[in-house]
Each structure stands twice: as C-alpha cells, then as structure tokens.
Amino acid sequence: MAQTAVRFGILGCANIARQLSRAIALSSNTALCAVASRSVEKAQKFVADNSLPSTVKIYGEYGEVLDDPDIDAVYIPLPTTLHVKWAVAAAEKKKHVLLEKPVALDVAELDRILEACESNGVQFMDGTVWVHHPRTGRMKEALGDERCFGQLKLIHSVLGYNAGPDFLKNDIRVKPDLDALGALGDIGWYCIRSILWAADYELPKTVVAMHKPVYNDLGVILSTGASLYWEDGKVATFYCSFLSHMTFDLTVLGTKGALRVNDLVSPFQESYGSFSLVSESDFAHLEPGRWAPVPQEHRVGSEVPQEVLMVNEFAKSVAKIRGEGLKPDWEWAKISRMTQLVMDAVKASMEKGFQAVEPVEYS
Q1: In the CATH hierarchy, which fold is given to the domain comprising 6-129?
Q2: Which residues contact 206 (CB under 8 A, 6 or more apart)?
Q3: Among 233, 267, 241, 239, which residue's Cα sits nearest to residue 251?
Q4: pLDDT digits (tens, 9 = 90+) for 141-192
Q5: What CATH architecture applies to the domain 133-305+341-351?
Q6: How far apart (Å, rounded) are the C-alpha atoms in residues 337 and 209?
C-alpha cells in the first residue's frame, strides 16, 4: 500500500461494515488501519470473521479511533441515533467522515454534522453506494438526451424486502431508540435519492405521504411511501417496505422515452449493471405484444465493486485536502441535505394527517 493511502478506521461492526471493510481493502488509495466496537472482543471477532490483516488495530471504544493520530478518515455505520454524536466528534478530531445512510434523524441533526465538518475542513460523504457505479453515469446521459428521452414527466421508485420475523423483532432498524425512521430511513433514503437524482437534484414543491403506512408496536415505520410534485408538472412516487418481496426498481418516464432498472441499489452481478431504455415506442400492429421498437438492454461493466468506487471517490477528495491544501467537495453534503429535507417532509406529512408539506430549510 502506497504511503499516500488514506488510512481508515471503522466505528462499529454492523453487517454493512463488512462490505466497506472489503472495499477499503480492495481500493488502491485506502488502507484499513483500525476497527472499534463497544467491546474489544466484538472488534476482534469482526477482524477475524472478515480475514482482515493482523496490522489492523482493535479498539474497544469508538473514541480510541478518533484519538489515533494514524487515522485520516472514519467510516461510521452506527445506528442513526448515534450519528450526530460520533460524526461531530470525528470532525472535531480532524477525521474525514464517510457516514452510513440515513445520515441523521432530521435535517437539524445533519446541519450540526455538516457544520462540524466544514469548520474543521474535513470531507463529508454519505454511504449511498449506487450513485458511484458507472451505470449511474450512463443512465444520466440517457435521461439528458432530449431528442430520445424528451421532457421528464414521472419517476417511480420501489425498494423493499421481506425482512422476516427475526429482523422485525430484533434488528436495530425497528428499534425507536436506535433507528427511529425504520423503513423510511433505511430504504426510503434510497428511493428519495433516486428521485432527486433523476430530477437533477431539484427539490419538489410539495410532498404528500401515502395513506395507511404500517408501523410496528413501538411506532417504527415498516412500510410507507409518498408522492412528490414539482411546479413544472413533474411527479414522482415511491414505496419502501420491510414487508414486501425484495425489489429495487426505478422507472423514469419522459415524453419520448422510458428508462427502467430492476436492481438499482445492488446490481444482480458485481461486474456489471444493466438498464433498459426505449424511445418513441408504439404498437406496430393491432395485435397485443407488437411493440416497435422494443426496449433495449444496456450493460455497463465495472472493474471493481461499486463500494470500492465510492471509497475511491471519497479518498480522492481526502487526498486533495491533505496533499494539495484544497477545500472539501461540498456537493456531496448538499445532496445529502436535500435527501434529508425530503425525508423530513415525508415524515411531517405522515404526522400531519397526510397533508401536503413543502421541503423547507430550518432557520
């Protein structure tokens, strides 16, 4: 590993941390140097179970990683309730912050995190992995081709999985003191991000939550959705659920074309991602099933897993700050904040009897 590698510490041993520890190891510009958990034993087990190098330091307290002068950046996959505490603490120790989504319980918490990162000159990025896949760039090019796709009219995102009884009873994502946003935070975040991505990160004018969301006995959201409306007539809908068959679909409709992807968050194959695209299709005959042209599949390869691409992108920004004296790239923070604003609006609409809510700035 080159001396310029960004040296990572991981705060917490959640399942998602397994993917990122692998990504850090596979990345050409990062090195995993420390893992912390609430106990040394749990951190040791994580290192052993994931065949991490013996050089990885093991800590029984999160703060020990932040005090380590050999750590440049931290990945934080802790429960959402703990994000503001540890992300702010990391920034104050001059550690760059890669924060798992959802990044906060609300935008006020996120603003505290972003203020700490900005005032200490450290990079912030959330852990929305799919935006770093090469397929995402190719899909954006297709949506931007006005001749073939036309004007954006509708976006529909569905993300869900049947979590099962053990998850619904014991997982942190159904505990109000750990991840109070439930399905809205865990997978609704992806739905909202995909909608904003397709709409060129233009905030909707209003958000209306769908009726009859499902809660568990502790009041945590298990299933919900919303409709988003823009002043120019664009409409978006999403549905997220811990109770449905696993589905990661995104559909984007324009006046001339349509784009669909069925594995948005995690491609079916690690080495490539596919999407279908059709332009100006119509019935060629009166008989059913005679479309012309038919949708075409576009396959976009990736030499490394998408998690590695995210880690690479984050590390490049850190290296520029550390080696060239440049300022952090705040586009990632802006995108996270927009996603949080819409998520807050969905929750507010649910709490206000499914009234229309405008995503607003906190004063």
Answers
A1: Rossmann fold (3.40.50)
A2: 228, 229, 356, 357, 358
A3: 239
A4: 999 999 999 999 999 999 999 999 999 999 999 999 999 999 999 999 999 9
A5: 2-Layer Sandwich (3.30)
A6: 19
